[in-house]
Give the backbone structure.
Amino acid sequence: MNKLKYKLIPAGAAEGRNPINLIFVDKKDVVEAGLTYREACEVIAKNFKEPAAVNILDMDAVTVSSDGIMVDYGIVAFASIDYGMINKDFGYLEVSEQPYSTKLLEEEPHMKQWDNIDAYKGKRLYRGPNFEDRWPRVPHNETQTITGRIANNNTGSEVMNVVDMTEILIPAYGALEIMKDGEVLIGIAGPEISVGIGMVVFETYGRIFHRSYGAGLTAHNSGIYAKTVKSDYPAICGPKSTLAEYTIRALEIGLVPGKDLGCSPAVLSIAHAMGLPIAIDNIEERAWVELESVGIKKADMEKPVEKPMTKEEVIAHADEIVPGISDGKPFKVSDISKICYAEF
């Protein structure tokens, strides 16, 4: 009998803050078991039987957050499981690799991180699936799987129980910390994250969108209501210091929020604290309406900072600088998860 290792954050974990079974699998363990990605998800489904979201991650690859910050891992496949099965048509998706090209870097300026940050050079890039041959393109990249009660959405970063309508967000740094057995911050997403999710960058086969909205634009385009879209969802995030560290990597190579990077509250707050350029006039008025609804005011961003903070200072004070997460509480991943083995 062979076994496939996976990590489970069960429903009810983290003092009840996690409402849905979440399963994370390291690509290396799938390869070691001699399985394809789909076979791995099917093996887990047959063993686990309860409703759950499954994400398979390559920890030697890279991906990109909604607002354009690169992170050193990549989701390569994701699935929804329920009743011991995966829906044969809609329950499973693989993520397309985006090959390196100078054309990609020219069209997507945030991807200069791939060339200019040593931690990312030469690594394989995974963002979202490629549906080019399946149906006509729409702004959303249709990055969702669904089986029974579980919808695993936006390339593994948002999971819903479609029967009881509970939902949880798993932003990029949360998944990173889960795989590293680090520390996560779990709380209610709040209005700042709700607005930030819509401040995306122009991407080909992105985790959420396909060549749809550039830096400085809002994908939500819902005015003062953008802050309510996902504000009451629980979220498993990385520590704000981790978010700050990765954001600063992008800012240090000269990328500008609103022009190269998405104008999320987090990115704008960090850049402003460091006295770094922000493309104020490239941020559309509709985006400013959403940002100002959560306290990120254009007039404040235009004011010079009297004493810009250093990288080290921003990371040390990230909890005060980076907005978002209500009632957040830190948890060691090892305290809220368990290692399981699916037999096949």
